[in-house]
Amino acid sequence: MSNHAVLATVDEVPVLRAVVEHLIPLADEARRFVFVLCADDVGERVAAALAGLPVVDRDDDEKTTARCDPRTLADLRALCWALATIFEGQEDGPFVTELGYLNLAPRVVASPDRAAVRAALVRAKLTVADAAELTAGRPAIDDEAAIARAMAPFEEHFAPEVAEAARAWLEGEDGTIPAVLREAESEYYGNPAEVVSDALTGAAERWNARTSRKLLDLWIACREGGAHLSLGLGEDELPPELGVDRARIVATALEVGGLDPALAVLAAKHCQGASTWYLAQTLLARPAIFTDALALGREVGRELAAAAVPVMGPQYSPSALERLRAFVASRSPALGTEALLKIAELLPDAVDEGHFDVAAEGAEPLELCKLARALEEADASRFAGMLRRANERWMSAAEPAAMVAQLREVQQRDDTLVDADVAWSRLLERLANNPGDPFGDGPEGGAIMNCYFVVEALRAPTGALKERLVALCRDHGSALGSLRRPLEKKAGIKPPPAPYVDADLKPLPEALAKAWKAARKKSWAAGVRLPAGATEATLVAAEKALGSKLPAELRASFTVHDGAGEDECFRGGRLYAIGEAVKQRAWLLEVDGAPFDPDWLPITDDGAGNHACVVLRGKDAGAVMDFDHETGCGRRLAKSFAAFLQGANWE
Fold first, then answer.
1. Which ranges carry the Knr4/Smi1-like domain (predicted)?
2. How far apart are CA 423 and CA 391, in angstroms?
3. Which of 12, 120, 164, 491 has the least CB density, counted as fewest CB within 10 Å?
4. What's the whole-model pTM score?
5. How confident is the model at residue 225 (pLDDT cuts 50, 70, 90)?
6. Is residue 365 reached through a cis peptide bond, with omega within 30 degrees of 0 on the bond before it?
7. For residue 152, with 0-12 CB atoms within 10 Å meaning exposed, 13-18 middle and 19 or more buried, which class applies?
8. H helices of 353-509, where?
9. Confidence band (pLDDT; 50, 70, 90) for 498?
């Protein structure tokens, strides 16, 4: 049955009790205050019924009539927000609501007189329930059902001997996990640790103590590489949580099984349910756990610290923020970029450059730059220039090829995090030292391509940096290879006139001449140097190998430019020279794979085995068609080579 209101005290809601015991230490009297929860759409009726009682409203000072000291009021409001999270999300019951999604409007009556609160609501013809009735839990799964659930994935996905060993172990006395079970593998699950996701319900309050203990022991023994922390508990039967401290049940069970307390907390954070919001935060009262976590690895400590920053209600509590401030003041190495990003929003004055320096150790460039910007936004005077400092720090520490790859990644994710002056300074230093191989992975290495995109995205340099760039292009132009033109563009250097003579286009059909005139202009601006045309002897030899004449338009095109060189610049691929096209056709006709039409000639290659092809003969002669290496001959790309050429982007 749904109710208009639910009554609770701190000690009646396990999650709330844990938050108060560890994070928001209310006075004994305040712990006995009555919290009233209702759906948002009956909030006004509940508020009217409580008129005359000392009420603390979560959102509105004007509706707060309780006389409490400011700190207690703030703490109580924070706990109201927490309750709204802990009990939210039930589609049907236990609250009366007409809303599609349950939004709660909690408030607290600053009195331990539960009877008076209930009577006021009943007089207003509102139905009332106690939280204890809702959070009493559901019956545990019996042995037979628990074992049947656990056996299902073993019987379906593992060898019979593994399933047999699993059943004997689950039904037998406690003892060592059999080696055949511990070392088992399956294509679907990998190792038995993955079985836990289907063998245990995510509703930890329903676990069968004996069977769940064994399954958790199996997970602890078999989890991948000793670091995998996601239990992946099945989501069936999850609702309602309604204040049950599901995450703490899981963490405690893992810790009892021998898992390190820090890892137990992090594993429980992966579980479903509102209580996961409050699990790690209560650890602020146990600072030693962060030191222990760091002993397992810097990333473990930092993940735990990030999860411990108060959220979902307690971030409004003076008591919770006081504990957080003490943790920040400890300067723990666990305070990495993720934790400090949250702390900079809550307590910007508690963070200083020393915290930034500690967090920077081992931090990803993107996260370090996010933190630097957040600090600048939180306190522009204290953290002026922090983003530039972050850029200088990671760019100077990274190996050259890694630096340019990371620079591109940061640009792609958020280019406002890149300090262009710092980036140009580092790039120009590398390019001047070795123009042909600035990043140490060869002139055709992936770092060159990354640098190309980085340069394209960077704003043009100014002042002394521009002068350095101009000098680089002047002194080492040809050695810069594919980087030459984008660097010249950023330096403001106009390309010399194209070396092509338009007179050689006059013999071409009008559409083809127009297409090549435009292509020459675009390709030259993009830094592509088109080769000379094929000789008549070369074309005759190609036609002999093909066993047919080339379509007139395509033949005429090859006399002007024999392909587009080695650059993958033509519509995202390479434009073949005639000799390459003939060889590629022969290969496609012989290789196993999608059948290739012998009446087609491939003219481009996208690097992944797909081609644009010109039809050599028949009613569609001269048309450009698509060939996919997996599916074969496909759609028409253009009615003619001239039309296909006209659509090239040369990038």
1. 533-647
2. 8
3. 164
4. 0.77
5. low
6. no
7. middle
8. 353-360, 365-378, 386-397, 400-414, 420-433, 446-457, 463-476, 484-491
9. confident
Angle at 65 between CA 61 and CA 67, to 5 degrees: 105
Q: Distance of CA 502 to CAs 465, 512, 517, 644, Å?
A: 38, 12, 7, 20
Rounded to 10°, the helix 552-560/510-525 angle is: 40
Does residue 412 sit in helix, strand or coil?
A: helix
- From residue 583, alpha-carbon distances to 98, 527, 571 in Å are 71, 27, 21
Rounded distance between C-alpha atoms, residue 483 and residue 467, angstroms: 17
Strand partners, 636: 625
**Token pair of 621, please?**
């002669």
Q: Which of 370, 385, 361, 380 is nearest to 340 (CA)?
A: 370
Q: Per-residue pLDDT averaged across 570-579, rounded?
A: 91
> What pLDDT was estimated at residue 476?
93
List the Cα angle 83/86/90 in 5-degree steps: 115
Answer yes or no: are the C-beta atoms of 318 and 283 closer than 8 Å: no
Is the CB of residue 484 less than 8 Å from the CB of residue 493? no
| Alpha-carbon gap, residue 213 to 233, rounded angstroms | 14
317 φ, ψ (degrees, to nearest 5): -90, 125
Calpha distance 631→595 (Å, rounded): 8
b/e 534-569 (16+ beta carbons within 10 angstroms → b): beeebbeebbeebeeebbebbbbbbbbbbbbbebbb
Nearest-CA neighbor of 18 among 286, 320, 282? 282
Do 614 and 554 meet the contact criterion of CB atoms below 8 Å apart?
Answer: yes
pLDDT over 90 at 304, yes or no: yes
With 0-12 CB in 10 A as exposed, 13-18 as middle and 19+ as buried, what is 596?
buried
How does pLDDT run across 589-643, given as a tens digit for each residue?
998 888 999 999 999 988 888 999 999 999 899 999 999 988 888 889 999 999 9
Opening angle at CA 493, ends 489 and 495, nearest 5:
85
Q: Report d(CA 15, CA 13) in Å as an integer.
A: 6
Q: How far is CA 553 from the centre of its chain?
A: 50
Residue 328 structure tokens = 């920040």
Nearest in space to 266 (alpha carbons), one of 280, 248, 284, 286: 280
Structure tokens at 559: 């006399």
- Please give the pLDDT value at position 53: 95
CA 399 to chain centre: 25
Report the C-alpha gap between 217 and 601 in whole angstroms. 63
* pLDDT score recorded for residue 545: 95
Distance CA 118, CA 108 (A): 13
The contacts of residue 327 (CB under 8 Å, 6+ apart) are: 284, 287, 290, 305, 308, 335
Look at residues 340, 322, 321, 320 and name the one whose alpha carbon lies nearest to residue 332. 340
Q: What confidence category does residue 176 fall into, taking pLDDT thresholds of 50, 70 and 90?
A: confident
φ, ψ dihedrals at 407, nearest 5°: -60, -45
Of 39, 26, 35, the closest CA to residue 57 belongs to 35
User: What is the biggest distance separating any 2 CA atoms in the chain, rounded to whole angstroms?
Assistant: 106
Which pLDDT score is estimated for 27? 92
Measured in degrees and rounded to the nearest 5, phi and psi for residue 181 equal -85, -40
Rounded CA gap, 462 and 441, in Å?
29
**Residue 216 and residue 197: Cα distance in Å, rounded?**
10
